[in-house]
Amino acid sequence: MTTHASNRSSRARRIGSRISTRWHYLPDLPAGSRASVRQVMLPTPTSGTPTLDDIGHGLADVVGFVLQGGGSLTAAQVGMLRALTEAGIRPDLLVGSSAGAINAVAFAAGPNISELARLEAMWRGLHRRHVAPMSLRTLLAAATGRGDGLFPDTGLRRQLETFLPVHDLSEASIPVHVVATDLESGSAVVLSTGDAVTALLASSAFPGLYPPVSVGGRHLIDGGVAADVPVLQAEALGASVIYILPAAADVPTHTYGRGPLPLAYSALGQILDGIARRDIAATRARVLILPMITSTASNPVDFRDTAPQIAAGYERTTTWLREQTLIAAAG
Fold it and tell me: 3-class SS at 291?
């Protein structure tokens, strides 16, 4: 195993070692994957639907859903949201970074099964050309220092304008907060009102991939740079119980050095791991991490594995919720 793969393989184990919560769970992942952790094996009940009380929190708690960033690897969150919705677990607020923020805003605008089906259809129809159209002009501009990103954000803007059911973040049925990063200070910026498309473009402006977005006089980039898993932001907004909906873990299918984009993506991921561990350890809220699935997607604009991600996210979360019911019943 290469040093690169070894560093990535310890991601979730290192995060998990810093969390103290009764219901903490992370799945086993294959060797050489982006994350490798210990699995908690529990029997699966043959019947029964979990409720809020079954998994250890009640109506007095403020429930927050935190959606991690990760480009195409966040498709799994659609299945996770469906499983949580079917179980009757509804958030009081949502916080998302990068592509996770797109899922958060879409769900907050219509927190029901029919709108989730629409979100799933959007994901299933995505291809790289829709969000990262490559042209000789943009490549030359980036290479000569006349452009701020490999791709213009016009394709992603078009997708968001076509798909999003709300124009302003404040119009969502559930309060939703989009996390971006201030390019100058490096600090997290939480956007809770204003144009939804602009906020999501800022939160998804992956460094070097898309250009920064100007909001309120500040140049903003991908929220994952400052808060890939924005648990501290969710806690500051009032959440006392936080569900983390992780992006999928990529499983390398090639050797080290798979091209500049996958290499840069993986290198940045190692930096973000440390930030996520620090933030999760610092929160005083109760944290529940949903099972992380694996994906063969090699970069944030690789959508070939979308459908399996969504299905696996749903199946693993449904099983996890049933397992929590058994744990709660056992006392």
Answer: coil
